[in-house]
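Sample 3 of the quickstart, ligand histidyl-adenosine monophosphate:
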Amino acid sequence: MIQIIRGFKDILPGETELWQHIEICARSLFENFGFKEIRIPILEKTELFARSIGEDTDIVEKEMYTFEDRKGEKITLRPEATASIVRSLIQHGLYTKNPVQKLYTIGPMFRRERPQKGRYRQFYQINAEIFGVGSALADAELIFILMTLFSRLSVKNTEAHINSLGCRECRPIYKEALNTHLDDFSSMLCPDCVRRKSRNPLRVLDCKVPSCRLAMENAPAMVDFLCDDCNAHFEETKQALEMLKIPFILDRNLVRGLDYYTRTTFEIQTSVLGAQNAVAGGGRYDGLVQALGGPQISATGFAIGFDRLIEVSDLDRDSFVKSPHLFIAALGEKSRMKAFEWSCRLGEKGIRTEMELGKKGLKSQMKQADRLNAGFVIIMGEDELSSGSVVLKDMKTSIQEQIPITDVVDAVMRRCI
Ligand code: HAM
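Result:
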């Protein structure tokens, strides 16, 4: 038997209902805040991710599903959505129609990481991005949306971690200080970090190798090197969060695994997911649109790990599974045809109706009605057909009612809507 690829998973009926519920909640919240949906391709040119996420990141160095298509062009299954959204924004000049663009997208991403709980090779993200707003209030709005969604979805034990990564002006000074610190610990660095140290020392902060972590223990932090503008921006973000009564933790070591960030970055972490503790991550990336060939446009956004969100949501998943309003058990050819007509008419009108389309005995049909947990049952046989009425049984109360055959569709509708 052919098995699914390692790190990939099927989402089965019984689970999909909760996924759908979360999607509906997220879409409606996004719409309240003026976001519009954008749908972007799953495959992009490899260069797009290399240039935006950064050549020295784990994602680009080790985790992308990259291959050549038949014409030898290098293409990649998207490891995240932000780069593609920026590409699309530039390609279609969306900012010329409206300088402020608030966009969201929901879909699968691919990273060839070592699979474990909360970490998959195909996983899903719910993304939201704001373009054209430099104000710190945009960052606060995003964190507010995240926390509101998580509270509506009964996600417990979450903490907002925030940090600032500075800008083109102040970050080089910090990088120098970090490099000086790393000079003293170079023998403790893993081969990847030795290479990263001179090119991109911030990446060392993100390394999970224990000796690198140890080397970084007393490393200088970016927040202590912020220029006046970055400092004022970060202060405003924090002030807005305080006003909105969103508790946050200033996490001086939060660097995120992607290179495009500037100024405020954040993660929503939870204690219930073990090592994979980030349910969502994001931040400002004011330089990316220009770096990818567009004009200078401020940007900020986040992505929620949908799979992780499902794992930490306390909602009762069974409550989203919809059972049929009605099951019609039919005996005999004429009854079966009549039942079929009713079930189509009722389905068309929004009443979830099930019947056995093949030919089975009453006992097996009643078993099926039970299995499906139908709200009402009608038994329709030759006797009912000749008497002109059927019995409609409410399966919860066991109350039975006689209904004229000519009125079945309307009678069921009156009881179910
Ligand atoms: P990211 O931190 O790489 O950021 O991913 C965001 C979230 O996706 C993570 O916090 C996590 O919940 C989930 N995630 C990441 N990798 C996996 C995996 N292998 N399995 C399951 N879940 C995973 C980004 O992707 C940025 N594009 C976020 C962003 C949007 N920044 C600005 N705008």
